[in-house]
Design brief:
Elements: H1 23-31, H2 91-110, H3 114-127, H4 132-144, H5 148-161, H6 166-178, H7 182-194, H8 199-208
Helix pairs in contact: 2-3, 2-4, 3-4, 4-5, 5-6, 6-7, 7-8
Length: 212
């Protein structure tokens, strides 16, 4: 027979293997736990450091970029064409201008318009600087005006430019005669006479009759 516990002593609790305390008993045990609870430290297991893979450019559908050569500034284009050098007039055109001006001067001389005649002969000489007809015309204009020194100058040029023209020889002889140079005048009249000038004989006769 089991001995009965003595008075004042708690009966020992015998834990029976395989027996699980009911839920109310577990609650009482938890509430009766010591205020100092033992908290198991949380063990942190470090995972291996993640290594980020190198950046890989995602393929794109953009067109490849082609390097362009450096921009070179071009000089501004000229807006105006340079002026062309004046072309010399053809020889035929200058000759035609001189020819027309000489005819104009002769007409003016016949009507006594010495200003217009001198202007026309001067234009002819400008178009053809070695024109014997232009210089002969200027000699005639100055002779009629009484400017015998200028008339002699142009008459000499006419003979220099066209020495085998009888009329130029007569003109130069007349200019010499007006200057009192009878011997020089006779030389020119003789030259004109040899060239077949009919007017040369009358001048030679005048000199023989005692002209200056």
């Amino acid at each position: 027979a089991a001995a009965s516990p003595e008075p004042g002593m708690a009966a020992p609790t015998v834990a029976l293997a395989g027996m699980v305390a009911p839920s109310d008993v577990r609650g009482e045990l938890l509430s009766a736990a010591s205020p100092m609870e033992v908290i198991a430290p949380a063990v942190s297991v470090a995972s291996p450091a993640a290594v980020a893979p190198p950046d890989v450019a995602a393929p794109t559908n953009a067109a490849p970029t082609i390097a362009t050569p450096p921009f070179v500034a071009r000089p501004p284009e000229a807006t105006e064409e340079p002026e062309a050098a004046p072309r010399p007039e053809p020889a035929r055109s200058r000759g035609r201008i001189a020819h027309d001006a000489i005819r104009e001067g002769r007409r003016a001389l016949r009507r006594g318009d010495y200003v217009a005649a001198e202007d026309a002969f001067a234009r002819a000489l400008q178009a053809s600087p070695r024109s014997a007809d232009a210089t002969a015309g200027l000699a005639d204009v100055n002779f009629e005006r009484g400017k015998h020194a200028r008339a002699l100058h142009y008459a000499e040029l006419a003979v220099r430019y066209a020495p085998r023209v009888a009329s130029h020889r007569l003109r130069l002889g007349d200019s010499y005669y007006r200057q009192g140079r009878s011997a020089d005048a006779r030389t020119q009249y003789l030259a004109a006479d040899r060239m077949g000038s009919a007017a040369a004989g009358s001048r030679l006769d005048a000199l023989a009759r005692g002209g200056r």
